[in-house]
Structure formats: C-alpha cells, structure tokens
Amino acid sequence: MKKTYLLLAVFALMLAAPAISSCSCKDSTLKVISYNIRMGVANDGDNSWDLRKEASVAMIEDQQPDIFGLQEAFDFQVKYLVDNCPQYAAIGVGRDDGVEEGEHMEIYYNKEKFNLKEWGTYWLSPTPDSVSFGWDAACRRTATWCLLESKDGRRHLYYVNTHLDHVGVDARRNGLALIVDRIGQMNKEGWPMVLTGDFNVKDDDPCLLALDGKMLSARATAKKTDDKGSYNAWGKASDAIDYIFYSDFSKALSFETLDRQYAGKPFISDHYPVVAVLKY
C-alpha cells in the first residue's frame, strides 16, 4: 500500500512539473523593446504617422513586451498607443517644456505585471534638472527613468530610455556619461537595470566606452541574435544604432531587429524596433 501511494505521488509530481516549469520560466524573464517611432509631425508622405500608426499597435500586440521605450514620440503618438494598447501605462514628458511639448522619451510598462514606484526625466546637459540644451547638441535631449515592482513584490527593476544627439559628438559622449553616472547613483541596491535608446552611433563609437564594465549589449551577448541595421531611412539605409543594454540579469536569451511588415506597411517607422528577452 505504501508503495502504491509513493508511485501515485511521484506520478502527480511528474504531471505538475511542466506547469511549474512553464510558470517559472515566464516569471523569470523580461521582454523589452526599444522603438524610435519617428516623430509624427514629420512630412513623410506615404510614410506619415496617420498612415502607419495602426502598424505600431500591431507590432506591440504581436510582440507583447513587458516594457518598452519610445524615442521621438509626440504627445498625440503617446496617447494613441495608450488608447489602443490598454494593458500598458505610459510615463514621460516633452523635452521642450518638461510637460508635453516636443519629443518624449516615453516608457510603457504592462500595468498588469508591474506597479510603478518612482519615475522622472532629466536633460542631457550640464543642468540636467531643468529644460536645457547640452554641450554641442542640435536638440534638447532627455532620459526618462522608472523603478518598477512586480505585482507580487518579488522583483524590482530600473529602466532608462534615451535618445542621444544626432549631431553633437560631445553631447553624445557627455550625455551617455551622465546617464551612467545617474544609474550608479539611483541603483544602490544592484537591482536589474535596462537602458534602451537610439544612440545615433554604431557599436564601435568611443562614446559607448562609458558603458564598458557596467552594462552589456543584448545585441552583442544574446544567445540568439542578429546584426541587422535598425535605422532603415524608409529603405534607404541599414545602420545598427538602436540599443538595449542591461545589467544584473543572468543573461540575454535573445535579441532581434523587427524588420517584418505589420498591418501591411513596408515600414512602421524609419527605424525598426529592437527586442530582447532577458533572464533574471
């Protein structure tokens, strides 16, 4: 009789194991996207925002990221995604007035999975806590950050989203150095950290040296990855300038440049989104 009970117990554990394993795997990974959505005020003809906005929603619905960062988003683009992707909440401000004017470095998080604990935006300049231009930058540049807590309270996560200047060499170097310094100040606990953005440089640019020994590139370290260009210029270019960096995760499982079509549009933006799956 005892042997029968033992066999039944073992059999029950074997049946439960796949479900336990599946749940554990899902809970132990983070799916993140960095996406330069292309400013909606641009005169892009057949690629204008109103003609491709549904494709952005289709991409998010297809990929189902846990968290994602937008670059170049104007307030009406931010609102459109909030209205059409209701599982996400958004945080960010306009770079030109600290409220809504100009491009947002917006962060979206799945509000069914995370609670927002803290967030903020600072300017990449010598006066980061006020609306400002930095060094030789052609535009005001910002970084938006947040601290998230999983719904069960077991995990904390920092996320920073930015867009480095497309002209100023000093602005890129000093701006990224400022971000790295702020990351060090905010994350005393050593919690998992993600940094995403359009850095406007290829991976051999000296400005990226600021991240050496501090964060890893998902493109460079993921078990499954690609080397496709993320900036496409509506089919006229192919440069890998969009990044997902991470620290205090055990590994990057995958990295992908999403160059597929969505909603029948050849390009959802002049940048392809990049997506990574990170393991805690």
Summarize the structure.
With 280 residues, the protein is of the alpha+beta class. The chain has 5 helices and 12 strands. The N and C termini lie far apart (43 Å).
Number of helices: 5
The mean pLDDT is 92
- The ordered string of helix (H) and strand (E) elements is HEHEHEEEEEHEEHEEE
The CATH superfamily turns out to be Endonuclease/exonuclease/phosphatase
Calculate the terminal CA-CA distance, rounded to whole Å.
43 Å
Note the main sheet. Answer: 6 strands, mixed
Strand content: 25-35%
Structural class: alpha+beta
* The level-1 CATH class: Alpha Beta
Structure in words:
The chain is of the alpha+beta class and 280 residues long. It has a single domain, classed as Deoxyribonuclease I, Chain A. It contains 5 helices and 12 strands. It has helices spanning 2-27, 49-63, 75-84, 169-186, 218-221; strands at 29-36, 67-71, 88-91, 107-110, 114-123, 142-150, 156-163, 193-198, 216-217, 242-247, 251-257, 274-279. The strands form 2 sheets. It has a 6-stranded mixed β-sheet. It has a 6-stranded mixed β-sheet with strand order 5-6-7-8-10-9. Helix 2 packs across helix 3. Mean pLDDT is 92; it is low at 1-25.
